[in-house]
Amino acid sequence: MKALFIGGTGTISTAIVKRLIQELNWEVWILNRGSRTQAVPEGVHQIIADIHDEAAVAEAIKDMTFDAVCEFIGYHVEDVERDYRLFQGKTKQYIFTSTASAYHKPAANYLITEGTTLANPHWQYSRDKIACEEFLMDKYRKEGFPVTIVRPSHTYDERRIPLGVHGKNGSWQVVQRMFEEKPVIIHGDGSSLWTMTFNTDFAIGYTGLMGNRHAIGEAFQITGDETLTWNQIYQTSADALGVTLHPYHVASDYLSAVGDKYGYDFEGKLTGDKSVSVVFDNTKLKRVVPDMRTTVRLDQGVRIALDYVLSHPEECQIPDPEFDAWCDRVINALESSKAGI
Question: Which of 94, 92, 85 lies closest to 133, judged by CA?
Fold first, then answer.
């Protein structure tokens, strides 16, 4: 079996590529600009090209066909329209990576299935993904274009400790605040439910859909089965770090309002995603991919990430003094407000 990955070196796709090469004996090609060659496993074939240069890509793949084409960097309708032109008749399956944030926020029911309404008034990113899905499913219904939609939620790898409220440089500054025993902002009261998925677990579900005739024309959410509150998520990280957690709860709409002028899109990433309680019902996926299961609990994944992050300071410990100062200002402003009443 032969697959082409558009991207192929990101948090999710790296684990999938490794599983295909090391465990499932696929022939794997990746198409990208070659900026992260160190993340490419041995045995992977690489096409160095910019996917946005349609003519160059068409020339590079003119004599190639694939069992699966896997799109990981398609964010706008224009991207999937281009892919449709490039791969129509050249692949038996086109797998588009959408997002679970496409589900309505808040949904009518906290239990999320693939049938939950797609609508997100709070995040343009999600609306663009919905538009991509609609284009592709229209091509499937009218022309038989062999699309499969996958919807990840919060998927992480060994390079980052997954947290909710952080700055532009990732979660390291939040970890640093924990080490320094400074208060750490948690959105809402920390009681909303959330699901984290380690990338190797995601890869089990994804690879099970590849080359699977039951996946054509269908959408699947791929997440783990462990559901925790945000308070539990932060406490799990603090326990792994061996520090005392000092949580500071702040309403998500307040964070959105005071974060906007600093370039923090908390309306999208919190109100449009993480602040809403969700529990994912993965029955549909498990019916098609019986091997799908959670093998890495959050406490295990956080310790895997912590070991890697602490041993790779230049790669993973990126300071964010702007976000650190912003947290202090938010907390001081709220404390002053409390004292003034």
Answer: 94
